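From the pipeline queue, job 12 of 40. The input is one protein chain; the requested action is below.

Action: predict structure.
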Amino acid sequence: MATPPDYVRISDAYAAAIVSGRLKPGEKLPSIAEMSKRYTVGATTIKMVLVRLEARRLVRRHQGKGTFVEPSERWLLPDRDDDEPEFEI
C-alpha cells in the first residue's frame, strides 16, 4: 500500500490530537512557518493541512491571528480508523 501524502499524515496527527483532547478548544496551532520547519515540508503542504482540518471544522483560521482549535460540537469527524497517526505533534 502506498504511503499517504505528507499533508494527509500531518493533518491526521493534528486531528487525532484535537479529538483526544491533547489540543483544547481555543488553543492556537503553530504558525505555517513553524510547522513547515518541524515537519520539513513546504508552506504549501502546511496550508493543505490547515485546509483539511478546517474542512472538518476542527480548526478555524483567522487571518493575521492564527489557527485555533474549534469546540467539539462543530467538528465533522471522519469514519473511525484504528491506524495511529504517523506524525507526532
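Job complete. The chain has a mean pLDDT of 90.
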